Amino acid sequence: MLLSTIDIALRGATVALLLVLAVSLFRGFGTVLAGRLAAAFALGSAAHAVTSSIGVTSPVSPAHALVIALSTGNVVVFWLFARALFDDGFRLRWWHGLIWIAVVVLSLTNCLFIAPAAMMGTKGTTFAGEEVMALISAMRILFVAINLLVLGFIALAVAQTIASWSSDLVEGRRRVRVFIVSAAALYGGLNAVLQISLSGSGGAELANTLNSAMLAAVVAAISIAMMRVDGADLFPAAPEIQSSGSEAAVVESSADQKLVDALMRLMADERIYRHDNVTIGTLATKLGIPEYRLRRLINQRLGYRNFNVFLNEHRIAEAKAALADPSQAEVPVITIAMDAGFQSLGPFNRAFKAITGVTPTEYRRLKANAV
């Protein structure tokens, strides 16, 4: 009884905190994709706090099943939130919605049809013995499959964190974003493992209470972490590069200006952006300064939030000049892309269109027609 009371109290506190967080995020950053996804993730987490039960296999009402399904689909929202948080140029696509719907429908099907039918069979209904065993097997397989899907999307979110870590130039976001994703991924992963390992167990009351305590701690820690960082660092007002442009916002110093000039010489004269696998560390070593200082310089003095965007702008500028040059009209686009520093045609096409609004081929044709 005591454990159940503690469990309910923890769940209630967690849901209240998540609802407040969702409202705050939507009101403050509802115009930004990452902000909207963060609010949606908070609401989905509230649904999870209400419905999460480890080792429980009793039937649920249709309304409860729907909340469980929405809670399961929240892992897709978590993955999309990680994408939007770490990639300022990320955009939602129609197939993202289809993935979310598929996960929700899969969970809802299990809650409303497969699991209840299997439970009826175990209670001596008219189902034949073979049918009962088949239903129980299907229920277990689907249950494990759903939790493996959860683990898979968590892995994708963590992979996004790792892949984009080195190119992030915003110091505040670099610190807090890894904490947010790591904490959420740790809880989600442990919850999925417990669900699989304790499914059908009769002694899961302690596990449920510990799970609720862990969820409450994670939510509280994430909320505190988000309050300690400037919201503009996590949720930029627009995905484009934003230059401060204000002398009051940037402390002018001759040392910084010399570093900026040296960096621009590396770009313009040496064309270092053409080199394979050029990194922040590469440039910092050439300039003889620590990485953190170069990150701050590119972010605060030049207005870039992402190192790859900084490199790509120089690469695209060279590619635009080559595509507009009549003497290079017969040079393949892939050759121009690789000469400018891109490793393949796909990333070049995406980066080029993001900056110019047209594909490289269209840009070349427009320039040719303008002559």
Automatic annotation (TrEMBL):
Gene3D superfamilies named in the record: Homeodomain-like
Domain HTH araC/xylS-type as annotated: residue spans: 257-366
GO MF term set: DNA-binding transcription factor activity; sequence-specific DNA binding
Membrane-spanning ranges: 6-26, 63-86, 98-120, 132-158, 178-198, 210-229
Pfam families for the chain: HTH_18 (PF12833)
PANTHER family with a match to the protein in the record: ARAC-FAMILY TRANSCRIPTIONAL REGULATOR (PTHR43280:SF29)
Protein name: AraC family transcriptional regulator
Species annotation: Bradyrhizobium lablabi
